[in-house]
Amino acid sequence: MSKVEDVKIIELPKYLDSRGNLSFVEQNNHIPFHIKRTYWIYDVPGGENRGGHAFIRNQEFVIALSGAFDVVVDDGQNRASFNLNRSYYGLYIPNGLWRTMENFSTNSLSLEFGSEHYSVEDYIREYDTFLKMKSNGQI
Ligand code: TYD
Predict the structure, then answer these.
(1) What are the pLDDT digits (tens) for 95-105?
(2) What is the Cβ-side half-sphere exposure of residue 33, based on CA atoms within 13 angstroms?
(3) What is the pTM for the complete model shown?
């Protein structure tokens, strides 16, 4: 049963260099799961939100490769907002949390790693259903 407190900002390695900086992530290291999927969100029009659902099994790791946005997480009782605005920080989001991505800056680029392949059945898209499953201990 994941809680908002289980969501973690993880500082990634960074090699500062006059030629340009470099950061990296490794699965089962900075990313605390085996990566099955990578996707990215870009060209988000001003004022639009993404997410607005929970995953039953999928864990995620989110990096703001460019620009900035907020990730709001909710466990049915508590809510927290994380502002991602540097490419050397990642946000680990366990499964079983409601999450929304908001306040995308112009030209922001969000990179997301998932622990599961894409599956429609893994999504909970109704907040009431999420609350019921959370209170039943199903997620
Ligand atoms: P969705 O998860 O709803 O986007 P977000 O949570 O970021 O707002 O995905 C939007 C569409 O993209 C959805 O119709 C299914 C498709 N999709 C895939 O086919 N594979 C994927 O890995 C993801 C994340 C989405």
Answers:
(1) 999 999 999 99
(2) 20
(3) 0.96
* Lookup: tokens for 129: 């259903």
Output b/e per residue, 5-44; b: 16+ Cβ within 10 A: eebeebebeeeeeeeeeebebeeeebbebebeeeeebeeb
Q: Residue 99 carries which side chain, given as an amino acid letter?
A: R
The letter for the amino acid at 89 is: Y
Mutate to test the pocket of ligand 1, among 35, 38, 39 (most ligand atoms within 8 A of CB): 39
Q: Which two tokens stand for residue 121?
A: 């059945």
Q: How far is the CA of 17 from the centre of ligand 1 (A)?
A: 35
Ligand 1, atom 21, lies closest to the CA of: 118
